[in-house]
Amino acid sequence: MSRHEKKLPLVNRELSWLSFNGRVLQEAENPNVPLAERMKFLAIFSSNLDEFFRVRVASVRRLLRYQKKNKLKEAEHVAKVLATIQQTVMQQQEQFLHIYENRIIPELADNRIFIINENQLTHSQKVAVNGYIKSDVLSYMFPIMLENLRDFPFLRDKSIYLAVKLSKLDGSLRPKYALLEVPANILGRFYVLPALDDNTYIMLLDDVIRLGLPEIFSFFDYDHFEAYTIKVTRDAELDIDNDMSESLVAKLSKSLKERPKGVPVRFIYDEDMPQDMLDFIVKKSGYSKEGIIPGGRYHNFKDFFEFPSVGPESFRNPSKKPIPIPQFEKTRALFDEIKKGDVMLHHPYQPFDYVIRLLREAAIDPNVYAIKITLYRVAQHSNIVNALINAVKNGKDVTVVMELQARFDEESNLYWSGKLQEAGAEVIFGVPNYKIHAKCCVIFRKENNKTVHYAHFSTGNYNGRTARLYGDSSLLTCDPRLTKDAVKIFAFIKNFPRIQYKFSHLLVAPFYMKKQFLALIEAEIRHAKKGKEAWIKAKMNSLVDEEMIAKLYAASAAGVKIQLVIRGICCLVPGMKGQSDNIEIISIVDKFLEHSRVFIFCADGEEKMYLSSADWMSRNLDRRIEVAFPIYHPEAKQQVKDMFEIQWSDNVKARRIDAEQKNKMKKPEVPLVRSQEETYHYLLLRSSE
Which pLDDT does position 407 carry in this prediction? Predict the structure, then answer.
């Protein structure tokens, strides 16, 4: 079935994403989640929503402008989607505020921790805060008076501002309006007051500034001040044209400087702001009415990632040490162990340090003569890059494929690209119009006068920081079936799209991966029609591609049993009689971000299994260079199967995805299975065998 023959039943992508963020909000509300972790989920919700507006809502708005300009009939539908987005966001914001004000704040107070504002200070506390204002805050206060400005000041994305109304209580002076940027990026968002009676008191920087308004505006003869938080979210799309006369690095650098000036897509304001003040700001700024959203007293809850470490240990998830891999701990060189057989790594349950160690060993091993690696999101302080630079210094040929257009990590990637080039590494910046999202490394080593290739494939980035937070899997191998294809990947990238290469074992996008996944599903359909066992088990971040969804519908209709674990966007509608009633979908939101992509096919009992960096989205399958790698080693295969079954059995953190997007929790049964905890115990048990 194609979408041209019959309209494909689909959940709207943007609304499905909002449903995912609703699952994050559920964790913030869950009383069984430690309090500090619930605050982090509020921060995640806020950060996610900012990115949603910067990227997705901005894209929909651009589409709507284009459709209206060209008088396309689709404009009416897109306008309805935007209206639904607005309505859903406002409902979620209300839920967010309810959780914060009626759950988080009272529970902190029960533990003698109080978030207080400028009106709740004792005399001694006021003295302490005024001292902080004079010593630290005042030097960063630069008010902008709005009355006589012809143009409204430019408000930076990711910053928050106080819109201030200055007035005279006796009415003798006409009110004035001003703007103050809250310098949270410099001073931090939270100020911990001196302890009092065994209580902890914390103020947000916004409220510290509110207390200091008479001092900040002492130049004027006003005696009453009101301040309301406002925030603007801007379109994050980078404008990179196809002018080949300018290098990608130069164009990206220029676009990054322009990104903060993107078109506003959302204006949030404190709903307690007086109407005359709001009208003044909206009229003066010219912001679009459909992007104006009321909120609470505080914005930028992403800053709650940095909430002071106060309260008992029960406020936080118990920390667990990564589980060592016994053979790696005992060996002198990782190459010796990888040679014996493939080794799976599962982060953050097992140390990411093994990947860094492999590169460190390769950098000093006299038998290693070359390293090739793809980098997508590089940590701000990257031991991976440091190991590669060390390899160059030790005379190795190092080739790094650096994706400069990894959204919101472009600056870090640009910085490290420069460092690598300075050291003497060959840095390849990818190809126009295609992002390189594959996660692959190949080490070239001389053994008995022959070159042996060692490869590392991963579902996640070469990023030590996110490896502690994201659930990913990777494979260390010297299996020639895989390493031969891995070497080709780098030639494929370097010569893309002029020369196409054939891959015998890896599934490579954009030319081959989708076709091969469709063929694997089609094989299950044939087996089901013949009455044979037929099933698909898959895990991914997002399921959006219409061709893949149509094929899954066809498989379900043919009797193929399909189990999907999808963290984020899911446009497939499960449970439709005769079309998708053989498809079950769950989503798991817990302390680690589920990030691995796993695809397992019955294959008439042969069980074909692939791990990948690619979701089943059109952008991954058609507009990116991606790799899916097969798992051949029996022990590695068993690990992946067992871990999928553990996730599928989750009845503590798993939600059922249905046509209504209700995010209903799976019915808890005995025994209770929290998959991330069970995965840790599973790997711990295997390490002791």
Answer: 54
Domain limit, last residue, from 494, 529, 547: 494
Question: Tens digits of per-residue pLDDT, 538-577?
Answer: 999 999 999 999 999 999 999 999 999 999 999 999 999 9
pLDDT in tens, 46-60: 999 999 998 888 888
Q: What is the CATH number of the domain that holds 79?
A: 1.20.58.310
Would you state the pLDDT for residue 238?
45
Residues 680 and 588 in one domain: yes
Spatial CB neighbours of 33, under 8 Å, sequence gap ≥ 6: 27, 41
Rg (CA), the chain: 27
The CATH code of the domain that includes 673 is 3.30.870.10
Contact 455, 485 (CB under 8 A): no
Same domain? For 537 and 461 the reply is: no
Residue 4, in any domain of the structure: no
190-216 tens-digit pLDDT: 999 998 888 999 999 999 999 999 999
Tell me: do 102 and 137 sit in the same domain: no
pLDDT at site 255: 43
Contact (Cβ atoms closer than 8 angstroms) between residue 328 and residue 337: yes
Specify whether 347 is located in the same domain as 481. yes
Owner of token pair 């990818």: 430
437 in catalytic set: yes
* Choice among 299, 347, 437, 456 that is catalytic: 437
- Report residue 484's pLDDT band, with 50, 70 and 90 as the boundaries: very high
Residue 481 and residue 526 share a domain: no
CB 245 within 8 A of CB 224: no
Q: What percent of the chain is modeled with pLDDT above 90?
A: 76
Is it the case that residue 257 has pLDDT exceeding 60? no
CA distances from 22 to 19, 96, 144, 617, 634 (A): 5, 10, 37, 21, 39
* H or E segment to which residue 531 belongs: none
User: How does pLDDT run across 368-405, given as a tens digit for each residue?
Assistant: 999 999 998 887 788 999 999 999 999 999 999 988 76
Chain-centroid distance, C-alpha 411: 17
* Domain's final residue, options 464, 494, 524: 494
Residue at 105 is within a domain: yes
Beta carbons within 8 Å of 634's beta carbon, 6+ residues apart: none
User: What is the residue type of 622?
Assistant: D
Number of compact structural domains in the chain: 4
CA torsion, points 134, 139, 141, 147, in degrees to nearest 10?
Answer: 110
Q: Is the residue at 6 inside a domain?
A: no
Specify whether 404 is located in the same domain as 553: no
Statement to judge: residues 355 and 436 lie in one domain: yes
Band of residue 416 on the pLDDT scale cut at 50, 70, 90: confident
Kindly state the helix (H) or strand (E) to which residue 547 belongs, with its residue range: helix 546-558
CB burial of residue 554 (10 Å; 0-12, 13-18, 19+) = middle
Can you name the residues that pair with 539 across neighbouring β-strands? 565, 598
In this structure, the dihedral spanned by the alpha carbons of residues 57, 28, 593 and 115, taken in order and rounded to 10 degrees, is 90
The pLDDT value given to residue 244: 38
Nearest to 385 by CA among 291, 306, 464: 464
Q: Note whether residue 321 is domain-resident.
A: no
* Euclidean distance between CA atoms 504 and 516, whole angstroms: 11
Domain range for 384 is 326-494
Confidence band, pLDDT 50/70/90 cuts, at residue 108: very high
* Terminal-residue alpha carbon distance, the chain: 49
